[in-house]
Every structure is written in C-alpha cells, then in structure tokens.
C-alpha cells in the first residue's frame, strides 16, 4: 500500500503547474470568496436549461450568517450550498500549506468562526435545514446532502489543521461527526441508511487516516455497508414524514441514480449520477485499503474496469447524459450531448489515486493524468475566474444554440454557476496538484514518480529533485539523495512517449517495465538519472463499439488531448478531414504568447469546399466534392473556449 | 392553380399501394375503432419518457358518451383526444369512397350519432372541456386544441359527405363552426386570438372549397391574420382566468413553439412544434391560393425553402428534437435523438401538395414523394396495427435503451400511443393516397402525372390509364383518352431516374423538362405513351453543413431511401464501411416473401473486425484495423422495425 506525501513537501519548479497553483491563490480563491459573499457583480448562469434552478446569487456565506442568527433572511440556493464554502476552505488550506499568507488565513479564520456560530449545540450543521426545515433534519436523506456537506467539512478541516495547526474547524467537524454517529448506525433506534449523495464515506476514511481513530473508519464502513441494504429505505423515510405530517409528497426515488439499488460491495457497473458514483468508489477503495475488505476492493476493480473500458471519454470526462448528470450504457459516448462534469473527472482522479495506492499500477495514473491535463483542467479558464460545469468534446454553436437537447452545453465558461460544485472543486484539486507527482510505500523505501513535472520532493532522510522543461522538452533528470540508503526509484513511463532512453550517470540502463514503471534500486548518493524520449503526435482511435467516433481520430501529444477551434481555422470544422498518416509530418510549435503558452499542432488536412450547389438543397445524388489542402491548427483541449465563442472539435473526421 | 381529382375517380391497379389501402380498410380501421372503444387488450405506450402522460387506455369514444350524458365517468386522455375519432372518421370516409361498405358505414353512422349527442345546443363540442372544465371553454387557447379538434371534425365531415351524401356530420361541423364564428373575430367583444395548435385554418379553407361559402374562407383568413398579432394574447387569457378565479397558474407560453411570435405572413422560418408549423403553412398556402394573398404566399415559399434546404431529413422526416417535438436550427439533423413524428411528415405532404397546386413545380412533388415512400410509410407496420410516433434514422438499442436523451425512440412500433395523433393520421393520409397521383388545372385541360403508380383516372370526357409494375419494373405506359380534345399530359420525371426515354406510339419523343415535367400536348385518341428509364442505386451525400452526416452516405433507389438492419447483417452496423463506388455493382433483388415484398440491395462493404485488444480499452494510439470484405444487405427504410428489435442505420459510414 502506498501513501501520499504531504503537499508542502513537494515543491513545484515547473512553469505549467506553478501558474495554476499561483493563480488559484492570487485570483481564484479571492474571486470565489467574493462570489460566495454576494460581493461580485457577475452573471451567474444556470448549469442547465431549467428556469427553476437558483442562479441569482451564491448566498453561501449569507446562509451561514442567517443560520447563526447574525442576519435575518431566507436561505437561498441549493440545499448543499454550504459545501461550496467547505471546498473553498479546503482550497485555501492547500494554498496556505504551499505558501503561508497571513491575510488569507485571517479571512479563512473569520469564515471558520462564522461556521462555528452557525453550528447547533448538538453539533448539527447544514444551513438549509436549520433555516428552512428544522423538523426535517436527517429525514430526507434521498436528497438532503447533509452527510455530503459533512464530508466536505471534514476534508476542509483536515486540510486546515495540516496547514495552520489550528483546530477550530476540526472541532466543528468532529462535533458534526459525533452528531452523525449519534443518529446513524446499526444500533436500534438509529437511522440505517446513507446520504443520497456520497462523500462522507471517503471523508470519514480520510479522517481515520488523519486521526488514527478507528471509530471514524467504522462509521465509514457502516455507510458503505448500509447503502442499498434496504432499497426501500428512502421511500420509508418519505412515508414516515408524510405520516408524521412533516411533508406531503411522494417523490420518485431513482435508486440507480444514487447507487442504492444494492450494496456497493455487490455493485459492478458504473451507473447513475457520475460524481456520486465516483465519490462512492473513492470511498470504497479508501475503506477497502484500511479494512482489507477484498470483496469491496473487487467491486472497486469491476467499477473501475467498467468506467475506463466502456464509459470514459478520451478527455477522461465521464457522464454521457445531462439527464441525472449520469453514466449511460456501454460505449455510449456522444460528443455533443454528453455531460462530462468537471467534478466527475475530479472524482475519477480521486478514485484512480486510491486504487493506485492499493495496487501500484500505471494504468491508474494514466487515467489520472488524462483527467488532470484534459477533462479537469478544461474546467477553468486560463485566467482562473470562469468555470465550466459541462465539458463537451464538440461544439457547433450555430447548432447547439437552437437544440434544447444541448441546452446544458456552454461555449464559454461562466463566472459562476447556480450549482457551484465545480469551481471550488477545481480550486481544491488543482490547487493541491503536488500530491499526485510522487507516492511512496508504507516503509518509505520506494518512491514512485508518477508525472513529469519539474519539482523537488523532501522526505525524511533525503530528497528527490526532478529537473525538466516538460512538456516543452522531452528530457527529465532525477537527482535522488538518500544518504546512501537502499532505496527504489520508480519512474512511470507513459504510453504516449516513444523510444525512451534511460541513463544513470550518463550510462545507458536497460528498461524493464513493471506495471508501467521502470525500477531503479540502489544506494543513492546523488546520482543523476536521466530519461530522454520522444513525444510523437499520436492518432487516437476509439473502440469500434463507440458509434460516435467512427471514421474519426483524436490527436494526442504527451498527456494532452488536442482539439481544433474555428478561431484558428475556418468555420465548419466538420469540413476538415485528417489522414492519420499526415500526423507524422505535423508541425509542433510552442506559442508562448497564446493562451498562457501552449504547444500548437499544425496538421495537413483535406478541406472540403462547400460549393454553391449546396445553398439550394440538403441532399445530392452521386455528389463529387472538391477538396483543397489546408493546414488545420490544433490546441490542447484544456485551453479551448478562452477566446470567444467558436466551434470546437476533438474527434476529427478522417 | 391546380386542383385534386376526387379520390373515387382514381382507381389503383398497383400492388404496392393497393395493399396499404386495402389493409387500412380491412385491418387498420377496425383495429383503431376497437382501440378507441377500449375494446382491445393491447399495451398502449407513452410517446416519450414522461410518466405523467396518459397511456392506460384511449377512451376516445367513451369521452363522447360521457359528454353526451349516456355514461357516467371522467374524461380520460389528452384534451385533444376527440380528434382521434375525427381522423378515424375521415379515414373511414375515404375508404367508403373507394369501396362502399354497408357495415362500416353503419358503424361510422353510430359514431356520428354519438358525436351529435355530445354536441351542446349552442354548437360547442370538445368533450374534455365539456366534462372537465365547462367554465374554461375558449379561455385557454394556448393549449386547448378546441379549434384544432374542430378542424379535424370539418375534414371528416367533408369526407363523409362526399363518400355517403349524408349530411349529419357536416351539420355538426357547421354548427361547431357557427359557434366558433360567434365567439371569434375582430368584432368587439369577440376573441381575437387563434388556437395554439393550428389545423382549423387549413380545414376552414377546405370547407370553403367544399361549400363555396366565402364566410368560411374569411374565418380562415381571420385565424391566420390574428395569430401573433398580439403576442401577449395567450398571457392575457391566462391573466383574465386567474383574475376571474377560474384558474390559478401562470404557465410559461413559448410563442415560438406555437408560431405566434409574429403574424404568419411575416414568418420566414420553420420554428417550433413541427406539426403545428406545417399545418399552419398548409393553411396559409390554401388560403393564399383563394385569397390571392401574395405576402402570405411569399411567407409560405420562405418557410418551404427553410424546411427543405435546411431542416429536413432524407426520409422527409422533420422535427430535430423531442423537446417541443420541434424544429431546431439550420442543418441540425441528428440521426439518433431526432423526433421525426409521423404526423410531421404527413403535414409536410399536405404543405407540399398545396404549394404544388399554386405553383406546379416538381420540387414540391419530389418532397411529397419522399415523405410518402419513406417518413410517412414508416409510421405503420406492414400488417397495419402498429405505429411509430418517432421515426429515427439510426437505432442502436444497446445504446439508446440506456440513454434518457433517446428515451422517445422506440425500436418496434407499439399498437397504440398515449398521444395517438399519428395512427389515424396515417390511416386517413395513406388511405387516400390516390389524391396525389394526378392533379389537373382549373380548366381541365392539363393533367399532371405526379407519381408512377398503376392506376386508372376517370375525368369528365376521358380517362387516363397508367400501366406499370413500378417499382418492380422501370417501364410506365400511359393510355390517355379525351375524345379527340386538345389536352396536355404532364409526366413528372423524377431526379432519381436515369436515361429516360419517351415514346408516343413507339416513336421516340424528345424530352424537354419544364419544372420537372415533360409535356405532351395533342388531340388524344388513345395513343400509348411509354416511358422507359433506369433506377440506379444512388449514393446520397448530405449537405456538408450537416455535421451528423459527415463521412457518410445514404442509399436511395427510386423513391425509396434504404437502411441496413442488423437482422440482415451482423450487429455493430457502424463497423460496415461502404465506398460509394461499390454501389454500381450493388445487387438488386426483389424478395416477394420478405416484408410483404421488398427490393433488397446487397452492397460490398469493408467490414471492420473488432479484435480482442478492444475488450480492454476504449482508446488506442496509431491503431491499424483489420478489414474483411462483406456484403451489406439493405431494405427500404419504410419497412424497418418489422422483424424484432435490432440495429438500424440509414446513413452508412464511408
């Protein structure tokens, strides 16, 4: 089993990721605070076309003030709005761990103080129910998100305690957990069901890792065990509420949507709401790791296999439909109506990393990397104040603007969303990117280098420096110091590179890959390890079962999936046809001035000319088209949608 | 201006269409009666995935009994359920015109008697409002369908009077119209708005044609003029109802959905609900024809152009989205999420034929033919008791079953639908197919032969016999007798035929096409005109603006669009790739035993082998696939979905 390094032990030297980490600190975090405090004059957009969705303001902090009795007013926004604040605090925590900042810490302290004031004496905390429906606490778990919010609170509390040593937020969180433990469990009289939206499971297991207290792991185990045990649990709650005169409705509860149709350990497929599914899987893996629950781990493996071999976009986006923000069937990966919520790709990263810690195979890191560099990074604008909820793989504004089935697809990132789960999730995830660079074993004798990022890792008894200009250059040097101890350095050799050559102190070393890593075991005295490789422009072919991608290729170079935007080309991107053979001659061109520095690709394409005969008709018999050679310019997918509304396509036509 | 022949003057000799006309009489009409009388033990399906839609029974006749006071009970079904009965009566009328049937006529008389009993003294008739909301009559026009139902009643009444000479139904209809005229109009105190669902406009204009009474045309003109004149009309009705305590809700009225955002004469685009749009356009054209309203006709032409050059599927299906059963934007023609309601293609036929009567150009008949042989004919099963609402161009059941965005797509025709507009619409339209074969001018000196169908036309002073085994054979003989009068025979030369040769009494005649027709003017003494041609297997290319059809071809032969079903091939139809060049060598094979006799096509395809490497992954770099040559079998699109659930594709991959 592997473990993470504390993020303040991993120092980024890399320009690519450093930009994001600093930008999150300098721009995203202050911006998000102001939005949550209703202090920004911005246009908040609905996450999908549904006028009943709240989108006038965030109100997240105001809700706490109202719950604390400091202000009068009504709760506004989603019932889970509190979690925005918690995720923001978690992002702040990582930022403070990386670079202390007194002013920011004071701001966070004030928020924590407010949260403490809002908490009830018995520990209960969720402003929506406190303000609006105090008699419904823990009684509408199919939608309430109470334990979901508690989970995010725990994650924030752990982060903040690590960052500052201050325990106020942790006390609040532990009080919430105590309250939950008092109400939930297999003991008679307690609630024997789980939150409709998973999150507390992974958070409780994290709390166990942080505190070492087994009671938290036990509670996590309970929530994973009780889920789906009685599939009628939620209906019974509803019935009881109606009986008690608390409510008067019979909502239809979709057990697949919330993965409660059977116990998680018996689940083998990724179904329903994608974020719930993958938060649950993350929790399952984390619990299985500590409880040695083989059945639970096997369920994780089956779910993992189902996602990555049947239900994942090339960008590591997941969730093929807006209806329930959900997984659909096998190989159903439409490029224009999909959902691919930023949070879902984030959840996939969490799941992948937990799986990797149990089973150190590169296949997990490959998916994690795919999500980090593509489906997650696309979730925010380059300048850090605009966010996607939905990350499409293809956008033709002239079409999707008039098609309600694509009403959830936006072409530019809004400043904020009515359901603002993604923006702070982006901040906390990319804001702690360091945790994914290296992993080590329990004994501290093996270090895994997962990603190519210029950085320095400090660990007890040594350090590891990774020197590289990747992705601009294909040369990575490692400088490992362990005071002469035996230690193993494992370097992941990604599938997207070609002709890797490994040198130790300039002497070529044979590369035997084990589970996708090359292994160097020796007494280290500061030897230089050097890896040199090529990053060809790759044609990606999708599984022939994926109907949406037939006769098409995607282009990848290094970890980056590429896309074409019409701003760099002509409109009607569908009229460009790329022969995979032409990729060998693609021009690779680093552009420091575009989109904060990207590597563009220029590929020769057959460009179909739309002649005048087509103005009159939709269909022609035995038509022979005219083709001209034209260069197609491609940019990394994550950077799309930053230069005004235009067409964008990942899967190019052959 | 052209006019139709009475359908009992056109005698079908053709096996293809005769089968349908007889089947509608012998099977469809009796079956539909029993369904409407709740006397069939069938599974009625919802037209789309929405559990609030009524689907337990039809109840259409029972609703009349309840309204008539003959039975106790509640109205059940859609508020426009009455129109099912009217459309059925219209289908019966045409059947009786073609072949009298005492028993059927008695059944129809009994239904007419019932309708008469349900009608109120003042003429008002719509069972939903009579039974459920008598105080809301004509007060909720945005959804009420009261004038829509009246329109269908008029059409049935005209048909039944023509068929039987009996005037009872006509009296009922005229009484309804009188009631409407009393309540609607520009005079003070009258309602100055139109029904949310168009239909009365085209029906009133037809009533004018039938009765010669200008007041009906004037009322039609009023409804086309008043629509959209005050875009707030419907909201004002709602407001007034709320004020008067009749209702207490504020529905959001989408004026584009019901084409009331501006006056029809100012409309230039096909927007909103497709059936409403095209019923309105049909009414506009019919009114413009009689009122010589140039502006209205120009609007029709613009709408027509918008539909056929930007918004129509190759099957003549229209309505690209389930959301509002509506048109979307230009060139947005997805093959798997579309709607393509049978009624919408029927409406397109009506519109096309009205336009042709004003402007006798083959382009209108081409679209009409495309709809008849494809998008409309697919609306019913071969045996005539199962009906599609939605006519997709591509179905992969394994995908669409799990994708809620395709929840409205069915793979087999249900017996009936909760909203049963399509089944009787199919019966009345295909059951009077004769009306489309020939058209003549006002003076009775020009006869247009629009379609190749073995048939005999009687007209005052002569007859025209068309002898052909088309579509089985490509040879058509015309035998025109006019007692030696000058007369012009115009024969449409479709775009899908090749190398046509025309002979009069065996002597070749040069063919000069005028507006798509070849013209033969002479004193006819029974000369034989013969047309011989080829019907090559055609590769159809879609306009490059249609993203959904890039790198794909459709196949057409004669008027039939073809499709592949996996029952004739292997599953995963997306793995078949067809080079258009191979179509020259396609095998054309008439199969009398399959699907009531169809012409199959066999085309050589490159069949991609899905190797084992794909079990593990979704994406591969620089993948080289393996191809085998394989024959792909195609069937006419209209006949798909008759042999059990399987995949179906119209647009094949190149």
Automatic annotation (TrEMBL), chains A, B:
Family matches, as Pfam families: Beta-AFase-like_GH127_cat (PF07944), Glyco_hydro127C (PF20737), Glyco_hydro127M (PF20736)
Signal sequence coordinates: none
Domain Non-reducing end beta-L-arabinofuranosidase-like GH127 C-terminal: 539-652
GO biological process: one example: carbohydrate metabolic process
Domain Non-reducing end beta-L-arabinofuranosidase-like GH127 middle: start-end pairs: 447-533
Stretches that traverse the bilayer: none
Domain Non-reducing end beta-L-arabinofuranosidase-like GH127 catalytic: 9-434
Domain of life: Bacteria
Record's protein name: Glycoside hydrolase family 127 protein
UniProt organism field: Niallia circulans
Taxonomic lineage from the root: Bacteria, Bacillati, Bacillota, Bacilli, Bacillales
